[in-house]
Design brief:
26% strand; alpha+beta; globular; 229 residues; Alpha-D-Glucose-1,6-Bisphosphate, Chain A, domain 4
């Protein structure tokens, strides 16, 4: 017969797995999600038009490319009337990247980062940023482009030098709604043996939970600013 310890461990594992699965499904019901994996120019035209720092070469058949997008819509009336939407967006990016810096994924990045880059994980660093071109967040996310409605960051990893990527946060107004998006694009040469993180099911699952939660809770954070004002 199985020992009490083994039985308890199995029950704990099953309970944890069930909780994570239910949490994932709960987030999925609140956030619109799309993903694309292909070789060549098969990303949605709206994505290639909106992300200005995608190199044209990455959209050719010489590269494998993955794209993951989370979208959250909110009535404009639920957001604060002040500050302006561009300023609210900056607050959202600060809040979300500050929250990400506390995630286990960020701890791993911190451990593998050069000492000189570790200050980019601190809340004092992140909360002082306007996310202008040249700013760096959590060591591996340099800001490549900044506009009033988008922040485009590179993704660089010394462990995967043949893999490049973009982390993009952006917003737009559509009629009486504001649409917030969080996107990740990664690519590598078709002849490269490197496995991109979003090609690994377990990593992709954890990315989805983190991305969806950050977007959902970040929008609720903005709504809360209006209620507390």
């Amino acid at each position: 017969m199985p020992s009490s310890l083994a039985t308890s461990s199995a029950l704990l594992l099953a309970t944890t797995a069930t909780t994570i699965y239910l949490f994932h499904n709960s987030l999925k019901s609140r956030v619109q999600h799309e993903s694309h994996r292909s070789s060549g120019m098969r990303l949605p035209p709206a994505t290639t038009a909106a992300i200005m720092t995608l190199p044209p070469a990455a959209l050719t058949t010489s590269y494998r490319i993955v794209h993951d997008s989370a979208t959250q819509r909110i009535p404009r009336s639920q957001l604060p009337t002040a500050p302006s939407l561009p300023d609210q967006f900056t607050l959202l990016v600060r809040r979300n990247m500050g929250a990400f810096a506390r995630f286990p994924q960020a701890w791993i990045l911190w451990l593998t980062s050069a000492t000189a880059q570790r200050h980019t994980f601190t809340q004092s660093h992140i909360q002082a940023l306007d996310f202008n071109e040249g700013d760096v967040v959590c060591a591996v996310y340099p800001v490549l482009r900044r506009s009033e409605n988008a922040v485009e960051m590179g993704i660089r990893s010394p462990r995967l030098p043949s893999v490049e990527g973009r982390l993009v946060l952006r917003w737009e107004e559509k009629e009486d709604e504001v649409v917030f998006r969080s996107e990740v694009v990664m690519w590598t040469g078709v002849d490269e043996k490197a496995v991109m993180p979003l090609e690994v099911p377990a990593v992709r699952f954890m990315h989805e939970m983190a991305s969806w939660w950050l977007l959902d809770s970040g929008v609720r954070y903005l709504v809360g600013l209006g209620r507390s004002g």
